[in-house]
Amino acid sequence: MDAQELLIRYGRGERDFSEVDLREADLCGATLAGINLQNANLVLANLTRADLRGANLSGANLIGIDAIGADFGRAKLTWARAIGANFVGARLHQVSAIEAMLAVSRFDRADLSQSCCIGADFDGATFRGANLARMNALGANFSGADLHSAFLSDANFTDANLSGTNLSVEGMLALAEVRHHDAQTERVLHEMVRQRQANHGARVRVTGESDAAYG
Question: pTM to 2 decimals?
Answer without folding.
Answer: 0.82
